[in-house]
Amino acid sequence: MNKSYHAGDRPSFLSSRMQYLRDNYVHPPFDYEQELLEAIRFGDENKALDMLNRINKLEGAVLATYPLRSRKNALIASCTLFTRAIIKGGVDAETAFQLSDTLILEIERMSDVERLNLFEYEMLMQFIATIRREKEVLPYSHIVNLSVHYIREHIFQDLALKGIADHIGVHPSYLSDRFKRETGMSITSFIHAKKVEESKHLLIYTNQSISEIAFLFKFCSQSYYTQIFKKFTGMTPREFRRDNSGK
After folding, report:
1. Where would one find coiled-coil regions in this protein (predicted)?
2. Of 180, 146, 178, 182, nearest in space to 164 by CA
3. pTM exceeds 0.70
């Protein structure tokens, strides 16, 4: 990880740190922070929300000259900690960092401190949802369970039957037959369903354009993403965003 200051900046950094302490700003107590991260790691939504509420009742650190920049920096720092927590909880690192990158981009786009304060809770819920999906017990055979976990962990990639079969070490036709028999869906339909489900979070909680979301989930075009989304939800991504805005 790159440091935020260089050796030559150390005197000014220390001066700023001393001024910061004199102004009586405090970082969250270490115990509070650790309890929050443990709650995230184990997918304990109620505990995580309780600890975040406790932390937010304290006076926060000033991390930049301007309030907006300071709040963004604080949320980015939290996002980094939350990301490490879900990786420790068993989430694939690529999945965790992809979520982190998406959330940080959204933080940077915001221009209102109050919206950022709300987004902190939305961000927490996305991390909790991710770790819960990882820990979900699936009622399938070992081969199909491996396939489902692989799809979830690589949901932002261009997934296909052959690549999944190669990863698991079985013949594509065998996996295809077994997967459909146990889940009631073809593996392609299952991939599409999961991509649609994950994309809903971005439609609700971010301002990313529909074309950006389609690209992120590796749909070949916005129109194809819209077609698949409507197949599983009965509405277009634009209609879904409109009906769920403010949630």
Report:
1. none
2. 146
3. no
